[in-house]
Amino acid sequence: MKILLIRFSSIGDIVLTFPVVNAIRKSFPEAKIHFASKKSFETLLLGAEGIDQFHLLSDSFSSFKDEVKKEKFDYIIDLHNNLRTRRLTFGNSAKIVRFDKLNIRKWLWTKWKLKVMPNVHVVDRYLDTLKVLGIHSVHQTRNTFNVPLSERVIIPERFPNIQGPFVAIAIGAQFRTKRVPKEKWVEILQEIDGNIVLVGGDMDREIGDWLIGKCPTKHMVNTCGKLTILESASVVSQAKSLLTNDTGMMHIAACFDTQIISIWGNTTPEFGMSPYRPEGIKNDQLFQVEGLSCRPCSKIGFQECPKKHFHCMTKHDAKAIASSVIMD
Predict the structure, then answer these.
(1) What angle do CA 235, 151, 207 make, to 5 degrees?
(2) Claim to verify: residue 163 and residue 217 sit in the same structural domain
(3) Are residues 98 and 167 in the same domain?
(4) Domain boundary residue, one of 133, 159, 175
(5) Which end of the chain has a smaller Cβ tally under 10 Å, C or N?
(6) Total domain count for the chain?
(7) Statement to judge: residues 200 and 164 lie in one domain
């Protein structure tokens, strides 16, 4: 049996498809599992186990479509379900099942505050697509993320200033309304004792340097833009705690024993996007500002607060967040 999974973006959404790969591999050990995504996520996909071949979109969509079509898949499981993935699969002879993103329900919640979303994690909804393969029941286990040996970071060697336990802080997010403001991070950092490692991409490097400048007495290192996504995952896997926005690194951290302290802004975990911990991690903490009539205002985020006040982030209690950190 030959199966194609499709998910073009983003980091967290792709990581949350890995349980689908695991479930197929467990049920059909001999199946050929392919995965279609963007070229920019090639490194991230190395964190998955059980994928036989990648199909990566870079420049020519028509060539990409031809590449997929010639594989003659038995099944295509579209976990993205947008116009582009429908174009990709149009005319394909495979049996196609598409993930229901429940966008109308999300719109009703963000626009009219009607809570009509099911109380089901997005991973479990991804797994529902496997009914087409006859997989009707999947034992829920923690998601897995494999860091290749070549990408593993030995903290004391790579960052000599960090000796012993440390807290990792993922300071970035694609949309600004999902990011803790840098001034709020300063409030939080001032309350944390011990080693601190900032993780993020190139776009976060400047803010990371700014935070270090604002907290000169803190034992802190900025790795933003200096590590690959797999190296950053390696760092997070070794952290005692991760403080994070609603972003991809939060979902990667859920694959490890690291305590997750998630800080939510304009989005809500009730969309089914909380850290995937089926077995539960008793020390995980989730912080969101309660009682705001404007929240959630988007299923993904904005670059500016529509109300201009950004209370969903600025009103977070920095001391409460910092006090939840485990460092031993």
Answers:
(1) 45
(2) yes
(3) no
(4) 133
(5) C
(6) 2
(7) yes
Q: Examine the domain organization and report whether 118 and 163 are in the same domain.
A: no
Give the predicted TM-score (pTM) of the model: 0.97
Contact indicator for 195, 165 with CB cutoff of 8 Å: yes
| pLDDT of the chain, 328 residues: tens digit per residue | 999 999 999 999 999 999 999 999 999 999 999 999 999 999 999 999 999 999 999 989 999 999 999 999 999 999 999 999 999 999 999 999 999 999 999 999 999 999 999 999 999 999 999 999 999 989 888 999 999 999 999 999 999 999 999 999 999 999 999 999 999 999 999 999 999 999 999 999 999 999 999 999 999 999 999 999 999 999 999 999 999 999 999 999 999 999 999 999 999 999 999 999 998 777 999 999 999 999 999 999 999 999 999 999 999 999 999 999 998 8
Q: Cβ of 301: how many Cβ atoms within 10 Å? A: 20
Tell me which residue of 10, 20, 1, 145 sits closest to 77, measured CA to CA.
20
Q: How many residues does the chain have?
A: 328
- Residue 80: give its domain's CATH number: 3.40.50.2000
- Residue 139, token pair as written in the block: 């034992």
